[in-house]
Amino acid sequence: MTSAPPSSALPAYSEFVSTIERAPERVAARWPFVAVIVLGVLLVAAPLITGMLPRAIKGEAMIDAFHPYIASKSIQDYRDDLHVLDEARTNVLAIQANGGQPGKFDYVDKFVQDYPSINANLTGMVDSIDANQDNYRKLSSTAPFGALPWLLALPGLVLITAGGFGLRAARNGKRGVFWHGTAALAGLALLAVPLTGGLFQAAPAAQPLINDFRPILTHDEVRTVQGYFVTIVAADGELNSRYVSALKTARPDADRTGITALEARWQPMTARFAALVGVLNDNVGNFDAVVALNDSTKPLGLTAFRGLGWGFVIPGSLALAVAAAGLRPALIGSRRGGSKGGTSK
Question: Any residues with CB less than 8 A from the CB of 136 and at least 6 apart, and which?
């Protein structure tokens, strides 16, 4: 008598049930990609709404233009020039007081009369420039102003792209890990700008410089300084062409030390004053653009330069947080899949 051989394997589950119920397919969350798109749109829109693109370029041009005039040597040269002019006026007054002025000299007389106010105004201007040397150095050592709007807008475009492609991946049942990673990199780039560009160090420097330069960089003030220049040039011309020769004839022993010192310094002095008037005139519009940019965020409760660093840190942190939230389910799924020997999407 023979018996049937025992089965070598257990029966399959399908042999007992007619329909196998599968686990529901995991669907990637879409909200992180929507949030990334919104954040990207805000980053692209912010430079456009605030006029940051043209204004930042003008601010950078102004910083570059003032570079030769903000140095300690240039400031001391202007102080020495004003002192020499003052000594020349004192010299003329002494000659007049001794009854030695050889005739009538309208331009010299106007210079003698006007120079105290000229000296006070120009000294105040030089003092303002001198007092802002450190502020200027902090601002000029940051990332180029003209590049800052692009350093906001370009990560914004990356976020919009990552969010768009990520949404499409999510609709196809994929987790969009690559696009979450791309958004995280854009966030890191935003965080790197203020840290490497010195924006937080420069933020307190902008407002004092704007306040001190506001009375200087106006069209009215430039016209006033141009008038000073005309007065000084006319007086020197008269001193050089008529006054000194007449004085030598009438009073050859008269002291002319101050007048002679002015003549010796005249050429470099006029070159410096002409250059200063030129840079003031050329940068009135640039300064107005900087002020407008700084004031553009006042409705938010702070000026633009004060909040410039945070303007990168906050969206950068948000981009990282949203990307991390989007990556978390994928990472958890990957670990579970790995523990079960499977793979994750």
Answer: 63, 66, 70, 205, 209
